């Protein structure tokens, strides 16, 4: 098994993991929207919050990956 094959498997695993998390988000938002049928989306979901959390998480991931 060569380095490119290992890298391909790692990338495939990362893509499938991201796909799974995306599906989990969609199901979670659907469940929440069913709970809040009478309220508009903006009253119980702030779309800026996940973006801010991802931006804050990015530098910590880079720092932890380069520690060793």
Oligomer: single chain
Tally of distinct domains: 1
In percent terms, what proportion of residues is strand? Answer: under 5%
The H-and-E topology, N to C, reads as: HHH
Q: Give the low-confidence spans.
A: none
Distance between the ends: 25 Å
The coarse silhouette is elongated
Look at the structure and give the mean pLDDT.
80
User: Count of helical segments?
Assistant: 3
The largest β sheet comes out as:
none
Query: What share of the residues lie within helices?
Result: over 70%
Number of strands: 0
Indicate the structural class: mainly alpha
Descriptive report:
There is one protein chain. With 68 residues, the chain is mostly helical. 81% of the residues lie in helices and 0% in strands. It has three helices and no strands. Keywords: Membrane, Transmembrane, Transmembrane helix.
Defining key terms:
single chain, 68 residues, mainly alpha, 3 helices, 0% strand, elongated, membrane, transmembrane, transmembrane helix
In short:
This protein is mainly alpha-helical.
Give the arrangement of secondary structure elements.
Blueprint: H1 3-35, H2 41-44, H3 48-65
């Amino acid at each position: 098994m060569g380095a490119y094959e290992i890298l391909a498997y790692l990338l495939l695993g990362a893509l499938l993991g991201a796909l799974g998390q995306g599906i989990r988000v969609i199901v979670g938002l659907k469940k929440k929207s069913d709970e809040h049928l009478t309220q508009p989306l903006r009253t119980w979901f702030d779309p800026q919050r996940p973006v801010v959390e991802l931006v804050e998480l990015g530098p910590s991931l880079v720092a932890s990956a380069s520690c060793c």
